Amino acid sequence: MDRLNLFPSPKSLVPGEGALPFELPLAIQAGANPSPRFQSAIKAVPFLEEQDVPIAQSEWRIECELIDYEDFSDESYQLKISSEGIALNAKTETGLFRGLTTLGQIVRGCRYALPCLLIEDGPDLSERGYMLDISRCKVPTQEALYELIDTLSALKYNQLQLYTEHTFAYRNHQTVWENASPLTAEEIQSLDAHCYNRYIELVPNQNSFGHMDRWLRHNAYRDLAECPNGYTHPLLGPLQWGGTLKPNEESIAFIRELYDELLPNFCSNRVNVGGDEPWELGQGWSEKLVKKHGKHRVYINHLLRIHDLVDRRGKTMQLWGDIVLENPELARELPKNCLGIIWGYEANHPFDEQCQVFGSSGIPFYVAPGTSAWNSIGGRIQNSLLNIEEACRQAVNHGAKGMLLTDWGDFGHHQFPFTSYHAIIGASALSWNQTSNGEYNLDDAVDSTFLRGTSSATAKAIFKLSKIVNSFQYKPDNRTLLNDLLMSNDRKLKDQLDHTNPRELKRSHERLCEFISLTEAEKPFWAATDLVSRELVFTSELLKFAALKGLKAFSKVDWDLQEGKERLIGQYKSLWLSRNRPGGLNESAAYLEKA
User: Fold this and answer.
1) How large is the average pLDDT for residues 570-587?
2) Over 90: is that where the pLDDT of 108 sits?
3) Contact, 531 vs 141, CB < 8 A?
4) What's the start-to-end Cα distance of the chain, in Å?
5) Are residues 111 and 146 in the same domain?
6) Cis amide linkage into residue 8, ω under 30° from 0
7) Predicted local confidence at residue 199, as pLDDT
């Protein structure tokens, strides 16, 4: 039997003798009374269809049966292909659906006959999620979100979160979202149904403490801020408005109103309330409280009030774990129906140590690695894969409940989706089967999943570009040097030049020119992925421009880059609208215009 490129890789695959000839589409015999959800989910699996006809009338069929296996989880399944037919057994319809997605991959890789085999499979981590930032300028179109959900379903993800600060159309708060092209209640309900019918839980995600500057910059909400007149951010310096809600009953009443409108649009019985990075806590309204009780005590007391809001609505509260990890004793004070999320995005992040903290507290927890795509322009694929591998390893070792892959858009969300493709595949594979590294071809998986390709050429090009971007000796956390050069004005550019030299920049520029030339030559063969090829070439042009900025500054030659810059900004705006709503575009482009 030829090697099958299945992802996530099954726990056990035993080859059999011979093959089973077949014709498409394969008909599914789902036994008595399959649920409407299962009937709808089948439509999302390529090459399959449900047929309510006697078995004798359907030669090319899959016999699905629910069996009460004691050692099976809800997502476990057994798939057997023999010369007599295809049999799929599971404990639940969710397990049947996971088995059908595996079968769909097998069918896609075979033309006329399926290899005989026995697969017994189930996940290492019961919850496997993906979180997309929709609050840093970029809100995808509804069609792009539907496509994302279908892709996640094919990869056996079972949770999706859309990170929200201000991009839900709250009825009484138009001032905050009017320029953001937000998701409406009706759109959320439609996305929720689409997720439900693909065995994915759409979890509401509304930051509720820190990261509220999108609200607090407006006069109508300034009084809710810990520091209404601004504060000094430890990374960004002085800011004109606050970013953290003051920890009092007025803020709780405000969040209560948001939850009352937002949460009924979701089937999920949980909500991610955020709670990370309340940078200025104790510097303004709560200064006396913090001096008396300590920052962490004030934080946990307010978080418990937020928990009460969530609990009264019958939901489980998810929260980012960074502040709790600063004072591990606080974890023991959290109610046991909370769930902490341990986030960290570098290859060497101490997931082992931090998982031990949450594990000893008795609080369920996730690990949250990242795609490493933000602030990179061209991606940090190798870092993301190592980060994901370590996160999933420690999650399994320490009994984590799940994994949430984060895909942020800090400072304008300039990267295109392709920079995250390898990470999405890798996190899918390792959260399902932690030992599966090397059991599938990652580039082929990217092409067949995201690009509908028949070879790995596009995925290899994406990976190659990431290697060029990360070829500098200086490798800052959560960003790349070329990203920083691209976004720097003349004053900041001088600081960035301390991290490189003309030789490095010249070599990078040459490699990018070569990459663009080869990619342009291959574009005629990429008809099925034309948008990705245009995004890939454009990204390379942006990076080449960044290298030129650095070389110009070093050489002090009076090159005029303005015309090229204006052309790139025009292309950026055009490509943005291919996948995303217009709200946030001008703000995102302004980062490039001001640099």
Assistant:
1) 96
2) no
3) no
4) 56
5) no
6) yes
7) 97
Quick one: 504 and 578 in the same domain? yes
What is the secondary structure of 569-589 as a DSSP string?
HHHHHHHHHHHB-STTHHHHH
Q: Which residues does 33 contact at the CB level (< 8 Å), separation at least 6?
A: none
Are residues 275 and 196 both part of a single domain?
Answer: yes
Neighbouring residues of 414: CB distance < 8 A, sequence distance ≥ 6: 377, 483, 542, 572, 588, 591, 592
Give the burial string for 210-239 (b: 16+ CB within 10 Å, else e). Answer: bbbbbbbbeeebeebbbbbebbeeeeeeeb
Neighbours of 277 (CB within 10 A): 19
User: Nearest 5°: phi and psi at 5?
Assistant: -95, 85
**Same domain? 343 vs 264:** yes
My answer on whether 373 and 341 are in the same domain is: yes
Domain that holds residue 323: 127-440
Query: With bands split at pLDDT 50, 70 and 90, how would you rate the model's confidence at 124?
Result: very high
What's the CA gap between 468 and 504, in Å, rounded? 11
Residue 279 CB-half CA count within 13 A: 17
C-alpha torsion 233→380→167→198, nearest 10:
-140
pLDDT in the model for residue 579: 96
378 with 246, same domain: the answer is yes
Record the tokens describing residue 521, joined without a space: 């030559």
- CA-CA distance, 202 to 351, in Å (whole number)? 26
What rounded mean pLDDT belongs to the chain? 92
Number of domains in the chain: 3
Tell me, yes or no, whether 409 lies in a domain.
yes
Q: pLDDT tens digits, residue range 521-543?
A: 776 555 546 889 889 999 999 99
Q: What is the DSSP letter of 263?
A: G
Query: For 391-442, how does the pLDDT look when each residue is reduced to its tens digit (9 = 90+)?
Result: 999 999 999 999 999 999 999 999 999 999 999 999 999 999 998 876 778 9
Question: Which of 88, 121, 154 is the last residue in one of the domains?
Answer: 121
Q: How would residue 56 be classed by pLDDT, with cut points 50, 70 and 90?
A: very low
Instruction: Give how far Cα 224 sits from Cα of 237, 247, 250, 308, 435, Å.
Output: 21, 9, 7, 20, 48
Maximum Cα interatomic distance, the chain, rounded to a whole number of Å:
80
CB-CB neighbours of 387 under 10 Å: 27
Predicted confidence at residue 49, as pLDDT, reads: 59
Q: What CATH number has the domain bearing residue 276?
A: 3.20.20.80
Q: Tell me: do 396 and 275 sit in the same domain.
A: yes
Indicate if 326 and 179 belong to the same structural domain. Answer: yes
Indicate the residue among 60, 93, 121 that finishes a domain.
Answer: 121
Q: Report the pLDDT value the prediction gives residue 529, as an integer from 0 to 100.
A: 61
Percentage above 70 pLDDT, the chain: 95
The Cα-based distances of 124 to 270, 382, 424, 435 in angstroms read: 22, 23, 17, 10
Residue with tokens 């369920």: 364
Contact call for residues 352 and 360 (beta carbons, < 8 A): no
Could you tell me if residue 590 is inside a domain? yes
Residue 520 lies in a domain: yes
The alpha carbons of the chain give a radius of gyration, in whole angstroms, of 25
Answer whether residue 134 shows pLDDT above 50. Answer: yes
Cα distance between residue 60 and residue 463, in whole Å: 39
Residue with tokens 């795509």: 373
Q: Is residue 64 part of a domain?
A: yes
Q: What is the pLDDT of residue 154?
A: 94
